[in-house]
Design goal:
Layout lengths: L1 H18 L19 E9 L1 E3 L7 E9 L7 E14 L3 E5 L5 E7 L12 E8 H7 L12 E10 L4 E2 L6 H5 L8 E7 L6 E11 L9 E9 L6 E4 L6 H4 L8 E7 L2 E7 L6 E8 L3 E8 L4 E7 L12
Parallel strand pairs: 2-10
Antiparallel strand pairs: 1-3, 3-7, 4-5, 4-6, 4-8, 8-9, 8-10, 11-12, 11-18, 12-13, 13-14, 14-15, 16-17, 17-18
Amino acid sequence: MKNIKYSFGFLLGALVFLSSCRDFVEPNIPYSEFDTGAYLRTIARTSTTFNFFDLANAKFALTLEAVDAQDGASVETVEIMVQHRRLIPGVGLKYSPAAGPVLIKTIPLADFAPNDKSRFLRTSFEISATEAISKVGLTAADIAGGDIFEFSMILTDKFGRSFNRGNVSNNIAGAPFFDSPFQYFVSVVCPSDLAGTFTYTSTDMDSAYGSCPGTITGSVVLTAVSSSPGAYTVSDGTFGLWNCYGDTWGNGAVRINDACGRLSMSGADKYGVGYSLTVLSVDANNLVFTWLNGDGETGTTTLKSNQGKPWPLNLR
């Protein structure tokens, strides 16, 4: 009988405990300065890059959820700060403005609203690239591919406390469930889409290893390198020259690189010889360039664009 009583008591206690559970994580957040607090869970990263070729329409956009002991209602404001940075080779990071981040947007509690996914309040916002560029004291002409805009947030609650990137714990900032870094890095990217099979015409070829006068035609494949955006392996870095005098490309590992429209060649052929490229002209149908390798071999190549996919006119 005693065992039955104990077992029943244990079962009853378990039921009471389980019935008291709620479908959320109690926001006893391990901030460095507070026992409990608030954080901003990232629900959706709607847009977190700026397209260098379309800055006028680029934007930074998020959906955030305010998590605290009052289901988000303790939020007073969320201030969004911004600062631009650029890595200068051999020098280091250059920030604009140099004095530190500047306020670009304030989100009041009134902009947070209930949702049908959780019991916490949510808000969505957008900040245009044009606004961000102006706020840091720059113009569109000052922006380059690879630049980064650092957006940081300061959540102030109705008790006067502030939560930000400086006092959030690593667990809250980086853990997938919480996803509350209070800081977002928006890169200026240059989308590149040069992969494909292209027909070519090669002229002005020169080589100490064999003769190839006149004009030759053929096709070449540019294959995107998944681990290196903007890089494409070339199925024949000589664009027919070696085939013309009896050699083959084989296992050459030469790439054409697109860095915001600036084309270059890197890597080496099967003999360990490097390559370079100089763009002569470009229009929607023809990309004309001269290639040169370390053995002095060279040629002028015209790559024809494919139907429905003209060459980007910014290539240089």
